[in-house]
Amino acid sequence: MDKKSNKKLDGRKKASIALLILAIVFFSINPIKTHLLSTNLKENDSDKIKIITESAKLKKQAKVKNVSSTTKPTSGNSAPASNSNQETSTENKATVGSASNENNSSNTGGEKNSSNEPINFESVQSLNLDMVRDAKGNVDYSSAIGAISIPNIDLLLPIFKGLDNHYLTYGAGTLKANQNMGQGNYTLAAHNYPDYPKILFSPLPKIKSNDRIYITDFGKIYEYKTEYIKLIEATDTFVINDTPNKTELTLITCNNDGSKRYLVKASYIGQSSFTDNTNETKSLFQLN
């Protein structure tokens, strides 16, 4: 074999090796990205207890401030009793509202549920590494409006108002602007991440009929009983609508390939006080 042929063989070998290296790099990129994303999601998940604790503490401080402001003695001439009560009521709304969560309206005369508001999934991005990393600097740890706990599937998450992409890397978001816990059809959505089945709403497909679901606005705990879980089309937005004379909870997340949605329906059982030093509250929401 002459030198020219040897050079051709060497060139083919080098090309083959280069292609092999490119193939290895190409096929290893996705697992690397998945690993990094999972790692960052786990870090976010570890902060959920801190978010729930800090948000509950803020709500408690706002409540104490509210009570203090309404019981503070006034100097000078007193206003007529009817006017005084009216002003107190207005002050209550302003103080609690400044703590700011949509569920406070249930105690302060807020608006009723907005039943026909569509699910705006178009604004929700798929989980990606940049978004999860960016969330660490864009999420206020005391801004949760509540929390959800499903003990039988080991699910515990903070609840945030709306479907902000950064906040959805930490917890669940509300699907209607003016809904109240324990009233109408309270609806929540969160991500399903198949590569890490313990994160966010990923455990939801394991839920069973009669499993208890607890949500709180840090003022009360609302208990629901699971009726069923099923797959629905992504276009089935009617599931968030209120049903006359029915109080229920609706949970929604994507299936593993994102083509459909898992829908969980639960019926309302009752409510109890959220007191951060009771065994029940500590057990359900793992308060520090």
TrEMBL record:
For the region Disordered, what residue ranges are annotated? Answer: 62-118
Ranges of compositional bias, category Low complexity: 97-117
The UniProt keywords, alphabetically, are: Hydrolase, Protease, Thiol protease
Q: Please indicate which superkingdom the organism of origin belongs to.
A: Bacteria
User: Can you tell me which residues form the catalytic site?
Assistant: 191, 254
Recorded GO MF terms: cysteine-type peptidase activity
Specify residue ranges for compositional bias: Polar residues.
66-95
**GO biological process terms on file:** proteolysis
Q: Where are the transmembrane segments?
A: none
- A Pfam family: Sortase
Q: Which NCBIfam families match?
A: sortase_fam
- Name of this protein: Class A sortase
Which organism is the protein's source?
A: Peptostreptococcus porci
